Protein backbone atom coordinates (compact mmCIF):
# COMPACT_ATOMS: atom_id res chain seq x y z
CA UNK A 1 0.00 0.00 0.00
CA UNK A 2 1.34 3.39 -0.83
CA UNK A 3 0.40 6.87 0.30
CA UNK A 4 -2.14 7.42 -2.49
CA UNK A 5 -4.07 4.29 -1.48
CA UNK A 6 -4.25 5.43 2.17
CA UNK A 7 -5.42 8.84 1.04
CA UNK A 8 -8.13 7.29 -1.13
CA UNK A 9 -9.33 4.99 1.71
CA UNK A 10 -9.63 7.92 4.16
CA UNK A 11 -11.46 10.04 1.60
CA UNK A 12 -13.84 7.18 0.80
CA UNK A 13 -14.46 6.57 4.54
CA UNK A 14 -15.10 10.31 5.11
CA UNK A 15 -17.74 10.39 2.36
CA UNK A 16 -19.49 7.20 3.46
CA UNK A 17 -19.50 7.74 7.26
CA UNK A 18 -18.84 11.40 8.21
CA UNK A 19 -20.31 11.11 11.73
CA UNK A 20 -18.09 8.18 12.62
CA UNK A 21 -15.03 10.03 11.25
CA UNK A 22 -15.88 13.07 13.39
CA UNK A 23 -16.25 10.96 16.54
CA UNK A 24 -12.96 9.15 15.86
CA UNK A 25 -11.20 12.49 15.23
CA UNK A 26 -12.50 13.93 18.52
CA UNK A 27 -11.41 10.82 20.45
CA UNK A 28 -7.92 10.95 18.89
CA UNK A 29 -7.65 14.71 19.67
CA UNK A 30 -8.70 14.16 23.32
CA UNK A 31 -6.27 11.24 23.63
CA UNK A 32 -3.36 13.35 22.34
CA UNK A 33 -4.37 16.30 24.57
CA UNK A 34 -4.48 13.94 27.57
CA UNK A 35 -1.03 12.61 26.76
CA UNK A 36 0.37 16.15 26.52
CA UNK A 37 -1.21 17.11 29.87
CA UNK A 38 0.09 13.91 31.48
CA UNK A 39 3.60 14.58 30.19
CA UNK A 40 3.52 18.14 31.52
CA UNK A 41 2.26 17.06 34.94
CA UNK A 42 4.74 14.20 35.38
CA UNK A 43 7.79 15.98 33.99
CA UNK A 44 10.56 16.30 36.57
CA UNK A 45 11.00 19.66 38.22
CA UNK A 46 13.72 21.87 36.86
CA UNK A 47 16.92 21.61 38.77
CA UNK A 48 17.67 24.77 40.66
CA UNK A 49 21.09 26.31 40.68
CA UNK A 50 23.17 25.17 43.61
CA UNK A 51 22.73 27.37 46.62
CA UNK A 52 25.57 29.78 47.19
CA UNK A 53 27.33 29.39 50.48
CA UNK A 54 27.78 32.81 52.10
CA UNK A 55 31.34 33.84 52.72
CA UNK A 56 32.23 34.62 56.31
CA UNK A 57 32.79 38.30 56.97
CA UNK A 58 36.34 39.37 57.48
CA UNK A 59 37.03 43.00 58.29
CA UNK A 60 40.00 44.37 56.45
CA UNK A 61 39.66 47.84 57.98
CA UNK A 62 38.51 49.22 61.30
CA UNK A 63 34.80 49.82 61.74
CA UNK A 64 33.66 53.40 61.22
CA UNK A 65 31.29 54.65 63.90
CA UNK A 66 28.88 57.30 62.60
CA UNK A 67 28.85 60.74 64.17
CA UNK A 68 26.11 61.38 66.69
CA UNK A 69 23.49 63.92 65.70
CA UNK A 70 24.23 67.46 66.75
CA UNK A 71 22.00 68.94 69.45
CA UNK A 72 20.29 72.09 68.36
CA UNK A 73 21.80 75.25 69.77
CA UNK A 74 18.65 76.36 71.62
CA UNK A 75 17.94 72.93 73.15
CA UNK A 76 19.29 72.09 76.57
CA UNK A 77 18.48 68.66 78.00
CA UNK A 78 18.87 69.92 81.57
CA UNK A 79 19.57 73.11 83.43
CA UNK A 80 21.48 74.02 86.53
CA UNK A 81 19.16 74.82 89.41
CA UNK A 82 19.81 75.90 92.91
CA UNK A 83 19.02 73.42 95.64
CA UNK A 84 17.13 75.89 97.81
CA UNK A 85 14.85 78.82 97.32
CA UNK A 86 16.04 82.17 98.42
CA UNK A 87 14.01 83.95 101.07
CA UNK A 88 12.86 86.42 98.43
CA UNK A 89 11.49 83.50 96.27
CA UNK A 90 9.70 82.04 99.28
CA UNK A 91 8.02 85.32 100.07
CA UNK A 92 7.03 85.83 96.43
CA UNK A 93 5.77 82.39 95.40
CA UNK A 94 4.95 80.28 98.44
CA UNK A 95 1.78 80.63 100.48
CA UNK A 96 0.73 78.35 103.30
CA UNK A 97 -2.58 76.59 102.60
CA UNK A 98 -5.58 77.33 104.80
CA UNK A 99 -6.95 74.67 107.13
CA UNK A 100 -10.26 74.43 105.25
CA UNK A 101 -8.45 73.88 101.95
CA UNK A 102 -6.27 71.15 103.50
CA UNK A 103 -9.36 69.42 104.93
CA UNK A 104 -11.08 69.44 101.51
CA UNK A 105 -7.93 68.09 99.87
CA UNK A 106 -7.64 65.35 102.48
CA UNK A 107 -11.29 64.36 101.98
CA UNK A 108 -10.87 64.26 98.17
CA UNK A 109 -7.74 62.12 98.45
CA UNK A 110 -9.42 59.75 100.91
CA UNK A 111 -12.38 59.25 98.57
CA UNK A 112 -10.02 58.49 95.66
CA UNK A 113 -8.11 55.98 97.75
CA UNK A 114 -11.36 54.41 98.92
CA UNK A 115 -12.53 54.03 95.31
CA UNK A 116 -9.25 52.38 94.37
CA UNK A 117 -8.97 50.04 97.35
CA UNK A 118 -12.66 49.60 98.11
CA UNK A 119 -13.09 46.64 95.75
CA UNK A 120 -9.80 45.06 96.77
CA UNK A 121 -10.03 41.95 98.95
Q: Which short descriptors sum up this protein?
A:
elongated
Total helix count? 4
Low-confidence stretches: none
> Average pLDDT across residues?
83
> What's the order of the H and E elements?
HHHH
Textual characterization of the structure:
- This protein is mainly alpha-helical and 121 residues long.
- The chain is built from four helices and no strands.
- Helix 1 (3-16) packs across helix 2 (18-42).
- The chain is elongated.
- The N and C termini lie far apart (108 Å).
- The relative contact order is 0.03.
Summarize the structure.
The protein is mainly α and 121 residues long. 54% of the residues lie in helices and 0% in strands. The protein has four helices and no strands.
Task: Give the helices and strands, then pairings.
Elements: H1 3-16, H2 18-42, H3 87-93, H4 99-117
Amino acid sequence: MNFDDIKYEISDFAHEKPVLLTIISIVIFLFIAGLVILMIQTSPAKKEAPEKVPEPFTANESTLIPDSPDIEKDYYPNRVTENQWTQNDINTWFTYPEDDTMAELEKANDSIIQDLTGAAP
